[in-house]
What we know:
Bound molecules: flavin-adenine dinucleotide
Distance between the termini: 34 Å
CATH topology of the largest domain: Uridine Diphospho-n-acetylenolpyruvylglucosamine Reductase, domain 3
Shape: globular
Number of helices: 17
Largest sheet: 7 strands, antiparallel
CATH architecture of the largest domain: 2-Layer Sandwich
Structural class: alpha+beta
Number of strands: 20
Amino acid sequence: MEVIQALRNVFHQDSLLVGEEACRPFECDALSAYREHPLAVVLPENVEQVKQALRICKQYQVPVITRGSGTGLAGGTLPLKNGIVLGLSKLNKIIKIDPLQRTAIVQPGVRNIVVSEAVAHHGLYYAPDPSSQIACSIGGNVAENSGGVHCLKYGLTVHNVTSIKIIDMDGTESVFDEKDDGIDLLALMNGSEGLLGVIVEIKLKLLPKPEAAQVVMAAFHSVGDCADAVTRVLEQGIIPAGLEMMDKFSIMAAEAFAKVGYPTEAEALLLCEVDGSHDQVQVDAKRVADILTQAGAYQIQLSQNEAQRIALWKGRKNAFPAVGRFSPDYYCMDGTIPRSQLAFILEEIAKLSTKYGLKVANVFHAGDGNLHPLIMYDANKPGELATTEAFGGEILKLCVDVGGTITGEHGVGVEKLNAMCHQYDTPELEIFHGIKAIFDDTGLLNPGKAVPTLHRCAEVSHMHVHNNQLPHPHLERF
Ligand SMILES: Cc1cc2nc3c(=O)[nH]c(=O)nc-3n(C[C@H](O)[C@H](O)[C@H](O)COP(=O)(O)OP(=O)(O)OC[C@H]3O[C@@H](n4cnc5c(N)ncnc54)[C@H](O)[C@@H]3O)c2cc1C
């Protein structure tokens, strides 16, 4: 094939994988229910090679699926049969650390946790901390606008990135910086899911490590009380560094895995971290403990030292894989709702769980209203994946219907294309398509992801006729 031959002229065999066996590790991301075999996988070692790969793909009209570490949960890096995967894991250098300006310039393949490790001796860290931080790449974090436990106080990726360099299909560089005037193109790149350009360099904001941090763990006999307690903490003007909730199943699974002393008889658990100066932390932790007691917590535990604080987080941070031990497969949903709706939504999810006959574990960023129901299923049972997806689809619709959104941090990928049709109307979708066309007039960058076609939405929504009125009536039906 001509495109492979052209790539062979640039890439040696360690950087150009062809054939079923060599490409198999790249056939899916963490949404492993969907798999596809790409034409080839290209692993550039420098930015010049990224440019060359893109120019060759443009010349032969071959789609390009950019990949960081492949931990995405929405199928954003799912290959196309006729496309190449552009894996950026070899672009893994920290280019510059400036402790005075509190910034780090990194290549996209640098893993999230490596940044904080590299700047720790300056008393600094990089705040956004996805639970996948030991594996996921900064490029992937930007492309998904990733969040994490500490994003309630310190913001998502978009709030912690000050400059980005991208390459387009012509191999041309553009830099978007926080100092730029005009439309905020830097913000636009965050969450662009590989559709607008290949991110090859990122300047990150670093923060001074807080002097102290303490976790308050609160156990509740009722999910509703626990959910309401989240709003009570925030109403009092406290912005915790993290505010996470787990339901009974997640508590049991996390405790069985991490053995950190979670109360397994509880219906729900809150972990609330406060940070700052030693004095402030003492005051805030006491206030949080009082508020949670008044909100109905029957047991409160405060971490007494750093080891205890880390142990209390260990269960939460390992909750996803811990749930994985109890089910052959699980489907991790991601939707966001107004915090005031937490109790209602959790009740509705429990009803849907009964309706679909599938167990759910809830472990999520409660302070952000960012839900992560884990639907447990068995992909080997015929039809069970489809049932799971229908269940997940109903959860996302519920999120939109109560004033929320279909994703908090995992992105749309291929997973949530139909849900996008529920969230957005034609004019908004046309704007998304317009932006994509301006950055990528070839349509070769990650095609078919993140933004549904209007036809798809017409098909999806013809099942939802309101007031005898079909949505998108001008579009042809298949
Ligand atoms: C156990 C587990 C826990 C997780 N916890 C969290 C969490 O707490 N918070 C959270 O936000 N996410 C979480 N995730 C999801 C995932 O880790 C994040 O979305 C992460 O940012 C993906 O990074 P990655 O390098 O793996 O990207 P990939 O999966 O490789 O790619 C993700 C998307 O970004 C695009 N992309 C990647 N690199 C580039 C680039 N350089 N230029 C342009 N586009 C690019 C890809 O095309 C794709 O669309 C979790 C995942 C797992 C498996």
